[in-house]
Amino acid sequence: MLLWIKGANSPQQIRDKLLDCNSDFSNNLIAYLNSAFSGDFIAGSLTAARSIMDDNYSNVSNVNLPTHQLPSVAPSLCSEQCHHCNQCNNNEDWWSKYKTEVDFILLKSNIHDHELGLSENDKGKGLLGPYCEKKGKCKARFPRPCYPETVIDLPTGHINMKKTEPMLNTIAYIITFLLRCNTDVTCLLSGTAIKAVIAYITDYISKNPLKTYMVFDIIRSIYNKNKQ
Ligand SMILES: [Zn+2]
Ligand SMILES: [Zn+2]
What we know:
The chain is mainly α. Helices cover 42% and strands 4% of the residues. The protein has 7 helices and 4 strands, in the order ααααββββααα. The strands form 2 sheets. It has a two-stranded antiparallel sheet. A two-stranded antiparallel ribbon has the order 3-4. α3 packs across α4 and α4 packs across α5. The two termini are 47 Å apart. The model has no long low-confidence stretch (mean pLDDT 89). One zinc ion binds next to α4.
């Protein structure tokens, strides 16, 4: 799915505004991007996410794991939003469950494994498995480049978003929570990237399961049938 924000600046206008040192445009844009998607665990790191998963799910049966359950509805805060009553406590419990569930789903379905599909003998040798190798490289582009902080590269205006997990792709937590599977969410901030994704999606949704010669063959057989 490609979302185009109506009335938004074009990539070139965004770049010009980013390079203008006198505006708070870049801070606002970075805050927006940080709220829209991420390439890290909510817990902060892979180790922290793994330890939270062990604490919360090691004794949970398969069928009750977040990847096998539908998302739960969030209870609202009370009308005073007091943060002390039972209703407010339920809401806070829901948010903490939301965070552990999202990290659990990311651990289970978004961590890339180069060795998937390799035999036990070939594992640990730095080889790429059949699902990710293409011309000697990982076709899923892992490991991804990491940046300790979000920075704007000044001569080019390119935004490098904060990212610390090289083997995790970029996601939106709420989409991971709702769809409960592997997803990929990213912000397309260059004309080239937008065109590449439009071509990719168009190709995907218009992929015809029938080859052209099969379509003609079917048409011919219908004609022949009706002639008789
Ligand atoms: Zn309350
Ligand atoms: Zn790979």
